[in-house]
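Q: Structure tokens for this one, please.
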Amino acid sequence: MGEIPKVLSIAGTDPTGGAGIHADLKTFQEVGAYGMAVITSVVAQNTMGVKDVWHMEDETILKQLEAVFEDIRPQAVKTGMIALPSMIESVTARLEREKLPIIVDPVMVATSGDSLMDKETTELMINRLLPITEIVTPNMEEAEKLTGVNVSTIEEAEKAARVLVDDMGAEAAVVKGGHAKDTAVDVLYYKKEFVHLKAERFDTKHTHGTGCTFSAAIAANRAKGIPVIKSCELAKEFITKAISHPLNIGRGNGPVNHWGRSLEK
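A: Here is the predicted structure, written as tokens:
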């Protein structure tokens, strides 16, 4: 088989399987990479919302990371929910020792609308994590919280993406347009150039885990050695298929279909 691409997710859980670590591992498998996971928070959530959260101790998170890196070193890392300032410090300090593509999904607000990150943690993400990030993938609301730029148009998304890269230090940024009112266009900014990732918009409430799945697909593609722009384009195709073939489960915002792409083969 040759060398197997390996990718690590550092994120929170979702016991109903649609988001967080659970979505990441499903995505890694579907994209063709061996998935590993370090849990930052155990989240009692479902398609209707977040019920409760229990955060891991920093030492527990670091021991999980060490267990991975001493044995099965990934080719890429994806971060999701990192909810506390000390977590950001601990995870960043460990990851900056590794020369790996780091894909950051700045999980600030759940699909249900629940807030998952406070102001101090957000500031640390900007000052500590983004400078070692290869690709950061905020949605429009998250981009606004990170940059202070109002994001409601493609032009404003481009402005926010520039701030994330040129001012905050990420190598690339994808400002996702799934919450826009017209077309589902994601704005990728990389090496001073913009690429618009376009897709058909679907009228569905089954979008739980969309952000996790998209960034996980990018990370898996990067672990496979696929270049940045192509990794994002393929991830856009993957999440579009996942949304367009809904599972129609859950009483709230149902999960995307992680094997949606295979239904069209």
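A few notes: The chain has a mean pLDDT of 93. The helical segments are 20-31, 58-69, 85-95, 119-129, 140-147, 154-167, 210-223, 228-244.
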